[in-house]
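We modelled each protein-ligand pair independently. The example shown here corresponds to the zinc ion entry; the chain sequence is given first, followed by the ligand as SMILES.
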Amino acid sequence: MAREIIDDVLLGALHIQSLTRDGFHHDHAVDHVAFQIGTLDALMEGRFDGDTTLGELLQHGSMGLGTVQHLGGELIIDQGKAYVARHDGSVVRVPETMKTPFAVVTAFQAAETVNIGDVDSAELFSVLTSLTGEHDEIVAVKLSGLFHDLVLRSIEEQHPPYVPLSTVIESQHEFTRHRCSGTIVGFRFPDYLAGLEVPGFHLHFLSDKKDFGGHVMALGIESATLEFEASQAMHVELPDGVTLGAPGTADRSAIRAIEEGD
Ligand SMILES: [Zn+2]
């Protein structure tokens, strides 16, 4: 079936196709492709209503992250199952009928696996950068193991009229745990995708007991297995009224304030 492609661009080392919701619906999971709903720019402007369901998203990948309708928490997708970390750090399974305004998944197949021991939270991102190498593409990462000094965050569900994401984040909830075993799913996005995505690492944590999770602000690794895989292409579903914009021109400090609480 013909895909409804709005735009087809080469950006940095990536081939990016923007599709309508109908086109996205007929597109299929492909190895080494990241599938995204919406854009970070649109989310930052307060577009917290999506038109794509998690069921549709899960046809494109088994691992990923994002948020859900009305910004109702931090979305964690692991092994084809969707969970949401709510504003108190508790985790619930979410039905596939739930919609999302912003999420990204991949049909994850680890290309490389590395064992990691003893990384403190200040070193986390630099260690992950050196281990995943000099990729100019999207790198999907998964960490499984025992973590310490966890600082996670989530946000409260919003109601219209929506305010910008920067305002929502001012009252984000942070929670800490001294030690917890679990899984981290996420991505490292190249800087030239800023605005379409979060440049750098974007990681979400889910405890093994599936009772604690959120967006990773900081944590250390006691011992873990890192698996990762690079993606050479990205397919983006753009809801009505949302455009691809000009990735790479976004205000990085505004994004950092949202992602890192700076
Ligand atoms: Zn997040």
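Helices lie at 21-26, 40-44, 54-58, 124-132, 165-169, 252-260.
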